[in-house]
Amino acid sequence: MSVIQSLRALEILDSRGRPTVQATCVLNDGTTATASVPSGRSTGSAEALELRDGDLKRYGGLGCRTAVGNVNHLLAPALIGAELPDQSTLDYRLCELDGTDNKSRLGANTILAVSLVFARAQAKQRGLPLYRHFADLLGIEPKLPGLTINLFSGGKHAEAQVAIQDVLIAPQTDSIADGLAMMYAIYQSAAALIKDKYGMRALTADEGGLAPPAPNDEVLLADAVQAIERAGYRPGEDAKLALDVASSHFFKDGRYHLHGQVLSGEEMVDLLLDWSRRYPLVSIEDGLAEEDWLHWSSLCSRIEGTRVLGDDLLCTNPARIRYAMENKAANALLLKVNQIGTLSEAAEAHRLARSAGWEVVISARSGETEDNWLGDLSTGWAGDYIKVGSITQSERLAKYNRLLEIEELMNEE
Length: 413
Ligand code: PGA
Ligand code: ZN
Fold this sequence. Notes:
alpha/beta; TIM Barrel; eight-stranded mixed barrel
């Protein structure tokens, strides 16, 4: 049984220098924990609401003082002293106190800060590493995830130099340590390739991916294959690719606008099928726009060997996942806890996805903090893959470095 003795929030800054929420909680036995929430830029319309102050004179309206005030003045008085046996009791209470479908009263950032900090405090109270506690929330055994690491960026994370958002490398190694070492070599090789090809040092995007001025989207896929080869690895065997097309963000008036081309839904499906045949893709995320359900189903029924991964489509929302299952619109879930706002609802999304035999990819946001709980979540919830961004920025490395620690801990067990 846990009883919260104190609960406070603080406005801190994320990796883009924008405000976000950090919460600290003390349990009645003195156990203390802190946790911070991330924030997206390429967001899905069905995500729970991220509460921002809207005062344009401060952080362009992005301040989180209202969210912080909601923790300190609304949630703390309601929760302090209450008996909270487990995570779902707390999360249920948080949803009840908010009272809306999309957390629009208190804010999903407000609520998630409290949901997360409570999980970390309970793990400490139980004397368990956080990944073990997360695994217990689902009643499963922890397992380290595979890696999908950002190599090239476009879309909203790189001012749309190219339309697609991420080309990722999926090292086919048995360990996190080996995967990261391989990724270092591929990243260096890609940086050198870009210098040769475009005559410039490639700028990096929000998640630390290289953002070369490629003439079109497919060139990035070809460049990624070449970077793998130039690093001395075999594309498709030693390292595969993953794509986040994030196509909702270039879908206008029922058409896909990428690199001077305007494609119908069917043509977009054909393009993705063509890429999946010619490149070693483990998954294609958001290949179609978030409401283009028909073409999601068409892609899903025709594609072979590449997972159809829903991010903006599903928004970690159990109702949307159910609808996607009924319509066979996807076969993998990108899970981002802040899209839904509590760990327990994200756990339900996870259970649903697994019940349909889907893969689950546990993902960070493009605006991250140095908090490393995602390393634990991706292991505790046995994600098939983790998606955190590149290997060059500390807010990303906090998670990779945590996975290295967890790998060591699990080897010792
Ligand atoms: P976001 O994007 O965190 O900026 O929303 C990440 C993604 O689309 O996967
Ligand atoms: Zn995405």
